[in-house]
Design brief:
- This protein is of the alpha/beta class and 473 residues long.
- It has helices at residues 7-14, 25-32, 51-67, 82-92, 116-126, 131-135, 161-167, 176-190, 202-214, 231-247, 259-265, 277-285, 287-290, 326-338, 340-346, 376-385, 420-427, 430-439, 445-465; strands at 39-46, 70-77, 98-101, 138-139, 144-145, 148-152, 157-160, 193-195, 269-273, 293-296, 308-310, 313-317, 352-353, 409-411.
- Helix 5 runs parallel beside helix 14, helix 10 (231-247) packs across helix 18 (430-439) and helix 18 runs antiparallel to helix 19.
- The protein is globular and about 70 Å long.
């Protein structure tokens, strides 16, 4: 390591002495000016489902580093290994400066910095943030922003239009009951299953929560009290068991985060719950399947409500052990938001901004100019009305029904916040396990719900004792 040369060292070694000050302050300022020490910023994030995003992000991060005299190192990791890798870094007290999760990492709150300042600055610069982004990064009990949510992914249903037309529902399902009625017909008459997981993975977590909310139940209420054990949950669990029996196959119990994508692309699924990433992959690999894929908003439950669970929501944290680089990390996150038009474009619209009012930067942005677009909302509306990534001969209005997705999308923990208890329940797959046991006829719906509720209460009490979950009301 090089030793820093002081003013006294320089004067002595150069033989200038105190009389050298006669050279004048301006000259001495130039003589003693030193280039700031080059620093390193390390970023850990998942390997994106849309590979072109990583091909944009990595050079973007490197260019940002050159502009700020920083060596930026971006490490990508498989989604399934992200949480365990960060847990190991926390235990070791060293590692990356920014870690990007795609679900609320609320259970890591004790190990990360409070990002209140960067969240406030972002809202000052970019305007109002979508509400579920705040609920996915802020703990109202501790008043701490344990993360910074810069974006999210719309989670619609993806369905094969030709199959649903043959079944008599050409515009696809609107309700969960439609899935059962027409999905059963498609599987029985056309031999094509649906793809909804009940496994220990991300998409199964998302599907289970969307089901519960649409059946007017949840893990917790808005005051963070566990309410899972109720008749609506039992109704939802029984429905899922029937859906499995009539429309799914045993492979859903060994589901991975890529399984429903793969099933759709292979032409073996009539419907999946996923983002548009599966569709984008099909456009590249199996164009004929892609042209047949259309989208539906959140399915409505028996009493008319419908919610989609935001499982892919980009929440970046800065661990406490990286506090010396917190200034760089925060600036990088803010500058990423400034360039979110590129993040949207380079993810082929997979990623949506948390700050829709962010101004569109001027100049060549690497995509065809959208006339009159001043904010990211303008870009979003234009691109979702007429998909710029549609294949030749393909309908360009497929994404139109997803344009206002923030109205039917919500956070893990709905109708409350994504607190640490909800984070642990998510990471330990309590809900998919509850559903799978009944579908596999290992337990009755009532037994499985009671057992899952007991697990949830135990987890809530653990975090409540630490002051990270609200008091019982």
């Amino acid at each position: 390591m090089k030793r820093r040369i002081t003013r006294r060292d320089f004067l002595r070694n150069a033989g200038i002495g105190t009389v050298g000050f006669a050279l004048g302050p301006a000259l001495l300022k130039d003589v003693f000016a030193q280039k700031p020490e080059r620093r390193t910023l390390r970023i850990l994030q998942w390997s994106h489902f849309v590979p072109r995003y990583d091909r944009w992000f990595d050079p973007f991060a490197k260019r940002w580093g050159e502009e700020h005299n920083v060596d930026v190192i971006v490490d990508h990791i498989g989604l399934a290994d992200l949480r365990s890798t960060f847990a190991s870094e926390v235990a070791a007290g060293k590692g990356h400066d920014i870690i990007e999760f795609i679900e609320p990492p609320s259970d890591f709150e004790p190990s990360v910095l409070d990002l209140k300042d960067v969240n406030q600055e972002a809202q000052k610069k970019f305007g109002k943030q979508v509400p579920f982004a705040i609920r996915s990064s802020y703990n109202p009990n501790t008043k701490k922003f344990y993360g910074f949510c810069h974006g999210w992914t719309i989670d619609p249903g993806d369905y094969r239009k030709s199959l649903w037309e043959k079944a008599g529902k050409s515009e696809g399902p609107v309700t969960w009951e439609d899935l059962l009625i027409y999905g059963t017909r498609i599987k029985k008459e056309l031999g094509v299953q649906m793809g909804i997981g009940m496994s220990q993975e991300l998409d199964s977590n998302m599907a289970g929560r969307a089901l519960l909310w649409s059946f007017d139940t949840a893990i917790q209420d808005e005051n963070e009290n566990v309410i899972l054990d109720n008749k609506n949950t039992v109704e939802a669990v029984k429905f899922m068991a029937e859906l499995y029996k009539n429309t799914l196959t045993p492979e859903v119990f060994g589901w991975t985060a890529a399984s429903n994508n793969q099933l759709l692309i292979a032409g073996r699924a009539s419907y999946i719950l996923n983002s548009i990433s599966a569709y984008r992959s099909a456009q590249k690999d199996v164009p004929e399947v892609a042209k047949d894929v259309f989208f539906t908003p959140a399915l409505k439950g028996p009493r008319g409500k419908g919610w989609a669970c935001e499982h892919v929501i980009y929440v970046s944290v800065i661990p406490k052990f990286a506090s010396k680089n917190a200034d760089l990390a925060k600036q990088f996150l803010l500058d990423l938001c400034t360039n979110y038009d590129r993040a949207m474009w380079e993810s082929a619209l997979y990623g949506s901004p948390s700050f829709f009012n962010t101004p569109v930067p001027s100049g060549d942005r690497g995509y065809p100019q959208v006339k009159g677009a001043k904010t990211l909302r303008d870009l979003h509306n234009a691109w979702f009305s007429e998909d710029p990534f549609a294949l030749p001969g393909e309908r360009k209005d497929k994404l139109l029904s997803l344009r206002d997705a923030e109205k039917w999308s919500t956070n893990v923990g709905h109708p409350g916040p994504a607190n640490p208890a909800e984070g642990e329940i998510f990471s330990t797959f309590v809900i998919p396990n509850m559903l799978a046991k009944v579908a596999q006829e290992k337990q009755s719906a009532e037994e499985s719900v009671k057992q899952a509720a007991a697990e949830c209460k135990k987890i809530f009490e653990k975090w409540r004792a630490q002051g990270l979950v609200g008091k019982k009301k």
